[in-house]
């Protein structure tokens, strides 16, 4: 299936902002981001990351935790053309690191790198507070135009470009016959590129809901290698 997107940032473009729920999290189904708020907050994250030096060739390391700040950070980096690495090694050369306030000190970073903590505020005043600083950022889409062949995701098995990931996204959408009526439950690690493709990119491409762990109701599709309550599922390995 051909997608109306050349780079990952196109999935959070201005025309995709609607009032429909896009990302649900927490107990029940009461906590959610609309597509409008999710796209806008992804833009804000991008503007924050730019200020901290992220961009092409300057990686954003993100904790492998399926929570809203992690998803917003993923698309914030993509909008700048900054590659993302989930669960970077303890000694890492990432330019920006995003993790929970409880875990943000677990990494050793080179001078000049920036730490941004969610679920804060952080104890260290040198660490930025994700929720506070994203809230105060400029709510405009960055003007950056990443190259479709530029790296978007760095994983243990190699480098994945924007074009690569979107090609696989189109295949997953077609194979699952995914529509805006679906709810896709993320039940596998984001460090697996197949989880990113099937659990994040595919639902955003068609306007389907993303269900994060903690939502009590089942969705219509699960991204998992385990048993799940959803009637349909896809292995992360099948979306790589």
Strand order of the largest sheet: 2-1-11-10-12-13
Q: How many structural domains does the protein architecture include?
A: 1
Number of E-state strands: 13
> Helix share of residues?
25-40%
Q: Which stretches are low in confidence, meaning pLDDT under 50 for 5 or more residues running?
A: none
Q: Categorize the overall geometry.
A: globular
The first-level CATH class name: Alpha Beta
Portion in strands? 15-25%
Query: How confident is the prediction overall: mean pLDDT?
Result: 95
> Counting H and I runs of at least 4 residues, what is the number of helices?
5
- Computed over alpha carbons, the radius of gyration is 16 Å
- The CATH superfamily is identified as ANL, N-terminal domain
Structure described in brief:
The chain has 240 residues and is of the alpha/beta class.
Task: Present the secondary structure layout.
Elements: E1 21-25, E2 31-34, H1 35-51, E3 60-62, H2 68-80, E4 84-86, E5 96-100, E6 114-118, E7 128-129, H3 130-135, E8 151-155, E9 158-161, H4 162-176, E10 183-186, H5 193-206, E11 209-211, E12 221-223, E13 232-234
Helix pairs in contact: 1-2, 4-5
Describe this structure as you would to a colleague:
With 240 residues, this protein is of the alpha/beta class. The chain has a single domain, classed as ANL, N-terminal domain (Rossmann fold, 3-Layer(aba) Sandwich), CATH 3.40.50.12780. The protein contains five helices and 13 strands. It has a six-stranded mixed sheet with strand order 2-1-11-10-12-13. Strands 4-3-5-6-7 form a five-stranded parallel sheet. A two-stranded antiparallel sheet has the order 8-9. β8 and β9 (158-161) form a beta hairpin. α1 crosses α2 (68-80) and α4 crosses α5. The protein is globular, with a radius of gyration of 16 Å. The model has no long low-confidence stretch (mean pLDDT 95).
């Amino acid at each position: 299936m051909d997608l109306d997107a050349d780079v990952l940032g196109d999935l959070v473009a201005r025309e995709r902002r609607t009032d429909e729920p896009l990302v649900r999290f927490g107990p029940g189904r009461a906590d959610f981001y609309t597509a409008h708020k999710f796209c806008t907050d992804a833009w804000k994250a991008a503007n924050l990351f730019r200020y901290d030096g992220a961009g092409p060739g300057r990686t954003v390391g993100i904790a492998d935790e399926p929570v809203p700040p992690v998803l917003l950070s993923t698309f914030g980096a993509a909008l700048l053309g900054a590659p993302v690495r989930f669960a970077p090694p303890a000694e890492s050369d990432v330019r920006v690191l995003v993790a929970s306030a409880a875990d943000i000190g677990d990494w050793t970073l080179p001078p000049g790198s920036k730490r941004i903590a969610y679920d804060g505020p952080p104890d260290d005043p040198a660490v930025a507070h994700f929720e506070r600083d994203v809230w105060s950022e400029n709510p405009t889409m960055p003007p950056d135009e990443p190259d479709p062949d530029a790296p978007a995701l760095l994983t243990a098995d190699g480098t994945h470009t924007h074009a690569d990931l979107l090609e696989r996204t189109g295949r997953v959408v077609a194979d699952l016959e995914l529509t805006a009526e679906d709810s896709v439950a993320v039940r596998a690690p984001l460090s697996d590129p197949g989880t990113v493709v099937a659990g994040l990119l595919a639902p955003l491409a068609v306007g389907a809901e993303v269900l994060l762990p903690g939502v009590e109701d089942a969705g219509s599709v699960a991204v998992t290698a385990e048993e799940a309550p959803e009637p349909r599922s896809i292995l992360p390995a099948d979306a790589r």
